């Protein structure tokens, strides 16, 4: 038992008792009075009461005595002084009494005014709350019977407070709910832990009440019972249900947006749309598109849509059973009967909801296996929503519910229309993008080289891999350009951006490179000229088109590459260690250069000597770039993959396949162009070169060396022509140059190359002499006799060359 079990409200109020004799002196001063004023009885008894009154209290004494003598009682407030001489207002109730001898005395009850006001306010507030609160309130005693209940709570159960008092919840609520709440009340009374917002449904199940219980105790901890606060939350639950439904619908729309995302493939969009609807919104879903939307092509006119072929481009269901496969077949071609519900949706553009169990005759033709499968699966609600975007009909969204699931409601139809509207925009974007991308790919592939001709001493492997669906055609390209004199040029580049504009720009830049390459320009000068062409392309554009590239000029006779680049990733040189047989790959260090299309200075070039059989790998950044990674990491990864070849190098095509497969498994980010070139040389017995002093007497020695070489090669049929042309070029070099003159012969598979080099940088010019001029006909003779001829500049001086066919 609590140590305060015998205490009551009187103890809390501290009721003081004072007896005053007929002389006005204190005869009794009880302990409660001692607590109120802080003065012990020994100090007060025998003294006049006025000794303990404040001045205001002394003035009230005569009034109180007259009231006592006249009426026998008095009630009022007396200001008294405590031991600290502070004023304490006490509520006083005085009564006139007489002893057996008839001697009068006064009995006064004292209560602190502040304590009494608190109790009065608490009781007043409690009464007001019970009487006026719209919230149901009840107080249960320790036996869990209703001790007090307000009208608001009693009315929730259709009763008056008088009818409810004395009852338990077992008498008021239905069986199972009453037992649960009664046990909860017992737990609250025993433990003191409150129970908040306990939901109890009404007997008819249509309403709901929120119950909160707390244990009642007095100031000393004695258990008085259990309080109950009850709210009718029927409307709140309905509002919350509507809010939850709205939240779920918004969540569904958000999930649809996330699922569709930035997809740019029609089939991918259709699959994502069907997948996000099952099972949250429907049991089975199908996205049926016009054939022209699914596979490309022109859309039929509205008056010709009826009966058009359609494709189930996207389907979804929780299970894949035989019945489901009969009803939903991915990529199945379907045609809807004229006059059917599907036909009406297509022609009118209005959605439709029906019960196929009772309206199957309006779906398609009788005994349609898809309808039979639908009925076998227990589908009881079917929704058809047209997919339209920008005034264009694309197809139908078909959703169906089966089993115990509720049929589609009006709210469900509104949500489906919103989903279809958003999905239609994505589908139409994918359709339009596919057309543009196909056009860009066709243009791009038409601009890329179809057949790669291998120059002498060179083997080629190449791959071009367009990015997968979701990105536009890019501007990557590569080229292998056979040059005069057995030389070869290799180029690779990447136009920044995607689409038709990038593909067209790629074609223009590639054409410029091929044209300038045949002029036998040094790589640095060639890139400078191409850059000027890029500036012309950019003229008048808001956003400049830029491109990166690498240009390589290879001389198989000297096994030397001259390379220049314009902001491109560096080439990789793959060589084999003659001792260990291991392959080693390293990037070729080159001056950086700015991208093409920007105003810039010249482009530096660098000569790189390569060993026999080395492989030069040119590529675009789509092969190595990864999001969040430095470009050097990708270059290192490419080098490691190239050097991982064991034993003899396989074919270059196989090497390209291996590299592309290892480094771009998904290839969903960018196009990839890859060119691998095995750099071989001209056989030693197929080339001869000499240096001669700049003197006329050397002409005869030049003719002798050339004649002996050609006879040794079995080319006697070319001796006379070759000697004539070499003599002309050598004599021309002697006339204008001041320094040694070089002569070089190269025997190819189909041509004989003859080169004459001198230190004069100015190229020779073809003259048109008059009939009586003695000279000026040397280059005319060369141009008319040789199959091809030309000039090129070297580090020092120039080289004039011509080719003679070995046969014919």
From TrEMBL:
<feature type="domain" description="PAS">
    <location>
        <begin position="122"/>
        <end position="192"/>
    </location>
</feature>
<dbReference type="Pfam" id="PF01590">
    <property type="entry name" value="GAF"/>
</dbReference>
<dbReference type="InterPro" id="IPR035965">
    <property type="entry name" value="PAS-like_dom_sf"/>
</dbReference>
<dbReference type="InterPro" id="IPR052016">
    <property type="entry name" value="Bact_Sigma-Reg"/>
</dbReference>
<dbReference type="Pfam" id="PF08448">
    <property type="entry name" value="PAS_4"/>
</dbReference>
<dbReference type="InterPro" id="IPR013656">
    <property type="entry name" value="PAS_4"/>
</dbReference>
<dbReference type="InterPro" id="IPR003018">
    <property type="entry name" value="GAF"/>
</dbReference>
<dbReference type="InterPro" id="IPR001932">
    <property type="entry name" value="PPM-type_phosphatase-like_dom"/>
</dbReference>
<dbReference type="InterPro" id="IPR029016">
    <property type="entry name" value="GAF-like_dom_sf"/>
</dbReference>
<dbReference type="InterPro" id="IPR036890">
    <property type="entry name" value="HATPase_C_sf"/>
</dbReference>
<dbReference type="InterPro" id="IPR003594">
    <property type="entry name" value="HATPase_dom"/>
</dbReference>
<dbReference type="InterPro" id="IPR013767">
    <property type="entry name" value="PAS_fold"/>
</dbReference>
<dbReference type="InterPro" id="IPR000014">
    <property type="entry name" value="PAS"/>
</dbReference>
<dbReference type="Pfam" id="PF00989">
    <property type="entry name" value="PAS"/>
</dbReference>
<feature type="domain" description="PAS">
    <location>
        <begin position="9"/>
        <end position="72"/>
    </location>
</feature>
<keyword id="KW-0378">Hydrolase</keyword>
<dbReference type="InterPro" id="IPR036457">
    <property type="entry name" value="PPM-type-like_dom_sf"/>
</dbReference>
<protein>
    <submittedName>
        <fullName>SpoIIE family protein phosphatase</fullName>
    </submittedName>
</protein>
<dbReference type="Pfam" id="PF07228">
    <property type="entry name" value="SpoIIE"/>
</dbReference>
<dbReference type="Pfam" id="PF13581">
    <property type="entry name" value="HATPase_c_2"/>
</dbReference>
